Amino acid sequence: MWNSLTHSLSDHPVGKEPQAMRTGQRQNKGMRTRLGCLSHKSDSCSDFTAILPDKPNRALKRLSTEEATRWADSFDVLLSHKYGVAAFRAFLKTEFSEENLEFWLACEEFKKTRSTAKLVSKAHRIFEEFVDVQAPREVNIDFQTREATRKNMQEPSLTCFDQAQGKVHSLMEKDSYPRFLRSKMYLDLLSQSQRRLS
């Protein structure tokens, strides 16, 4: 790939760099950056401890084997535990799909909104951040759900994201959650908490 890129660059006269070539160079630079990130990607427990809500050592001491084991009972049990959410978020970051969890959490927080004025602005912020086409952290939902949510934005309510949130929850539960339970990160976390007990 690099040889063909170098060869194609040498075919263009100096000073006459077409727009397509500049775009291609930016895309290749972006690809090199992403590949560099992938080479450093890890799902080990050490990555998880770096983003725990508390200081990592204190948090790990508080996390019992029983609690970490219960995360495998159901996806909702995992989501109800702050360290479970932190571990799952760290795992999703290794898969470049943390926007799903961030959207789900934003919807949960949104449902607690009591002020009508804040409700409207928060709804639009969440829609623009996660649901709209080409949103910065666009979640993977089908066209019908996206359009139904768009219509809900005309008169936002506490339930305006329920359909989209349900789809994202289902996607994470069927797809990311089983991989998390098999991940080195989760297995390392379990073995660390068990070692503390012995």
UniProtKB/TrEMBL annotation:
Protein's UniProt keywords contain Membrane: yes
Main location: membrane
A GO BP annotation: negative regulation of signal transduction
Gene3D superfamilies: 1.10.196.10, Regulator of G-protein Signalling 4, domain 2 (1.10.167.10)
PROSITE patterns per record: RGS
Domain (RGS): residue spans on this chain: 74-190
Organism superkingdom: Eukaryota
GO cellular component labels: dendrite; nucleus; perikaryon; plasma membrane
Keyword hit for Oxidoreductase: no
Record region (Disordered): 1-31
SUPFAM superfamilies with a match to the protein in the record: Regulator of G-protein signaling, RGS (SSF48097)
Compartment list: Cell membrane; Cell projection, Dendrite; Nucleus; Perikaryon
Membrane topology, as annotated: Peripheral membrane protein
Keywords: Cell membrane, Cell projection, Membrane, Nucleus, Signal transduction inhibitor
CDD domains: RGS_RGS8
PANTHER family, sorted: REGULATOR OF G PROTEIN SIGNALING, REGULATOR OF G-PROTEIN SIGNALING 8
Name assigned to this protein: Regulator of G-protein signaling 8
Organism for this UniProt entry: Odobenus rosmarus divergens (Pacific walrus)
Lineage: Eukaryota, Metazoa, Chordata, Craniata, Vertebrata
Gene expressing this chain: RGS8
